[in-house]
Amino acid sequence: MKRPHLIAALCFAIAGLFYIAGLSKDYLVGFLLLGVGFEVAAWANVIKALRDKRAG
């Protein structure tokens, strides 16, 4: 991926939307799990970008 930080920011934004949606709906656990999934993906992109930057 050429822009992992952009993808990570997008994943964080999607996770935030799921967290906000979870607070206003009856499906709190489902939205929180989706948010956590996107947040984990975002952190994975950030860590991968940092490792690639250090390696090259």
UniProtKB/TrEMBL annotation:
* Entry's transmembrane regions: 5-21, 27-47
**UniProt entry keywords in alphabetical sequence:** Membrane, Transmembrane, Transmembrane helix
> What is this protein identified as?
Phosphatidate cytidylyltransferase
- Top-level division of the source organism's lineage: Bacteria
